[in-house]
Automatic annotation (TrEMBL):
Pfam families, sorted: DUF4295 (PF14128)
Name assigned to this protein: DUF4295 domain-containing protein
Entries under InterPro entries matching the protein: DUF4295 (IPR025379)
Lineage: Bacteria, Pseudomonadati, Bacteroidota, Cytophagia, Cytophagales
Amino acid sequence: MAKKVVATLKKKGGIKYAKVIKAVKSAKTGAYTFKEEIVTEDQVKQKLA
C-alpha cells in the first residue's frame, strides 16, 4: 500500500511529499498508537518535533 501512495504523489515538477508515521503514547492506558500524515518535505521536521 505504501508503494501505491508514494507512486501517486510523485509527479514531475511538482511538490515532493513524505508520509510521516508518529508513535503517540496514550495517557490512560500507556499503549502506543500510530498517527499517519502526508505532508510536504519541508514540513517533516516540524511535524516530528
